[in-house]
Design a protein that fits this description.
The structure is a single chain. The protein is mostly beta strands. The strands form two sheets. Strands 2, 4, 5, 6, 9, 10 and 11 form a seven-stranded mixed β-sheet that branches. The chain is built from one helix and eleven strands, in the order βββββββββαββ.
């Protein structure tokens, strides 16, 4: 079955950078849109970034635009999230996701977490002030 394994989280000072990785298996990766969500304690899971199957289309939450970059490698079945200029409010568990629906449908759903079929186990990102 679908397996999504995140790595790369850690503790970083405000203004620093991290690169998160997600290794995907058990799905036809090259035809799946992929993305990242995050969840802070006491908060709902929220959309962070999405990338379509070819990597030619991306979308970001307003809170991370200009600071985060999503990318993918369809040869190695990997999706990445580059986090730059990190802020304390970025502190959360970050989840790799396979929404299991077409890009337009995902967009029309307003990138809601309820559209996601498969989630990774998450990787913790902590940003100190």
């Amino acid at each position: 079955q679908v397996q999504l394994v995140e790595s790369g989280g850690g503790l970083v000072q405000a203004g620093g950078s991290l690169r998160l990785s997600c290794a995907a298996s058990g799905l036809p990766f090259s035809i799946y849109d992929m993305g990242w969500y995050r969840q802070a304690p006491g908060k709902e899971r929220e959309f962070v970034a999405g990338i379509n199957r070819s990597g030619m289309q991306t979308h970001y939450a307003d809170a991370v635009k200009g600071r985060f970059t999503i990318s993918r490698d369809n040869v190695d079945n990997m999706v990445y999230l580059q986090l730059d200029n990190l802020k304390p409010e970025d502190t959360a568990i970050y989840y790799c996701v396979a929404p299991g629906l077409e890009w337009t449908s995902w967009k029309d759903s307003q990138w809601g977490a309820d559209t996601i079929n498969d989630w990774g186990q998450g990787t913790q990102v902590t940003v100190s002030s």
